[in-house]
Amino acid sequence: MAAVVDKRAEQKTALEKIRHGLATKVRILASNDACPVCKALEGAYEFDEVPELPHEGCSHPDGCRCFYAPVLDRFGP
């Protein structure tokens, strides 16, 4: 359980860094061997609609390995 809490805190920190950077949205990326729940949630989200990571419904033996990535669609400084 502590590992899930640590992963959740780590992902929350990553999301905050993306939110305060140049990103206009956030994307959830899943590994190639991700479970169906993680694969279904893969995609781009508005900041106020992005699901929390790790996914509670993940059934992968190693746990949720999804991560946040910025969507950068602005050009220039």
SS-based structural class?
alpha+beta
**Largest beta-sheet details:** 3 strands, antiparallel
Number of helices: 2
DSSP helix fraction: 25-40%
Shape: globular
Side-by-side strand order of the widest sheet? 2-1-3
Distance between the termini: 42 Å
Q: Residue-averaged pLDDT, rounded?
A: 87
The H/E string reads HEHEE
* Rounded Rg: 13 Å
The proportion of residues in beta strands is 15-25%
Low-confidence stretches: none
- How many β-strand stretches? 3
SSE order and pairing:
Blueprint: H1 2-19, E1 25-29, H2 36-41, E2 43-45, E3 67-71
Antiparallel strand pairs: 1-2, 1-3
Structure notes:
The chain is globular and about 40 Å long. The mean pLDDT is 87. It has helices at 2-19, 36-41, and strands spanning 25-29, 43-45, 67-71. 14% of the residues are buried. It has a three-stranded antiparallel β-sheet. The termini are far apart. It is α+β, with helices and mostly antiparallel strands.
Sum this structure up briefly.
The chain is an alpha+beta fold and 77 residues long. 31% of the residues lie in helices and 17% in strands. It is globular and about 40 Å long.
Summary tags:
77 residues; 2 helices
